[in-house]
């Protein structure tokens, strides 16, 4: 592929706001958005997307997939539909960038694995809580430098704000599909996939097992197919991990969730406050380190992120610098396994 020619991509599925970060990241890295298709033009996400990109033509999915000049398909469709879109794109000779979760069933994952092997194309899941957060990249540098010793445990907290229910999915609202496990895959498949990714990455692991998992519906009795809480214990032969995700972010918090990550090493530890420091420091991307030399704070807001640029490099060079393909598969396997094995509590159907 000629480095001088921009990689051309199209968006299929505009159901989740992560599509804005994905397209923004690809555009900033030098790619060209040449088409869009959505299955629900009524959604607030789709309407806002069109308002922000009025010159991007709307085409059918079939047209976009058949266009030989399109290199990449990006999707943030309803989670249950993402694997179908990705499989069609892979078989059409496109590389794929999908919002998390990349799939919602183990059968979909196995078909994706087989299709990637058959086609040689890339299936990349955008784990934005790592790929779009400079503090996480900086924490990785520190962990890999040996400064905190061997990483033996991660503790990842992923609280989210539910927002108002809105059938059309307008800004700040949630559409009806959001409340049905058949559509979003379950809370551990959906938002906890971020934490599975971070556990494997920080502990330098290729695999793990689910020691225990729980999902619950504590505060939504009228939506028994919804889950508002989940937690997981992970382990392998050299590390353990704990994950907690929920939809209980209070209205008074000045962001959508107080995402936090603790990385325990044998000679120190790191704490990340990714999106807010409730102790009062301005900005996001706060990193704290306690090591042999003392206690340190770093503001990482101005540090670069590399995922989108590396993804485009991988498309050109057929490499795996943005994220190893097997890592992506293993993250989704763990998420699906944790969801399938979870003890179910509260008002669940």
Description:
The protein has 11 helices and 16 strands. It has 349 residues and is of the alpha/beta class. It has a 9-stranded mixed β-sheet. It has a 5-stranded parallel β-sheet with strand order 2-1-3-4-5, with helices on both faces. The model has no long low-confidence stretch (mean pLDDT 95).
What's the helical proportion of residues? 25-40%
Count of discrete alpha- or pi-helical segments spanning 4 or more residues: 11
Average pLDDT works out at 95
Report the biggest beta sheet as strand number plus sense, adding barrel if it closes: 9 strands, mixed
End-to-end C-alpha gap: 51 Å
Strand arrangement across the biggest beta sheet: 15-14-13-12-6-11-10-9-16
* Overall strand count: 16
Category by helix and strand content: alpha/beta
* SSE succession: EHEHHEHEHEHHEEEHHEEEEEEEHHE
What is the percentage of strand-forming residues? Answer: 25-35%
Structural topology:
Layout (H helix, E strand, L loop, with lengths): L7 E7 L3 H11 L3 E6 L6 H9 L8 H6 L5 E5 L2 H13 L3 E5 L6 H14 L3 E4 L1 H4 L2 H11 L6 E9 L4 E2 L7 E2 L6 H4 L8 H10 L6 E9 L11 E7 L4 E7 L13 E6 L2 E6 L12 E6 L2 E6 L7 H11 L7 H17 L1 E4 L3
Parallel strand pairs: 1-2, 1-3, 3-4, 4-5, 6-11, 7-8, 9-16
Antiparallel strand pairs: 6-12, 9-10, 10-11, 12-13, 13-14, 14-15
Helix pairs in contact: 1-10, 4-5, 9-11
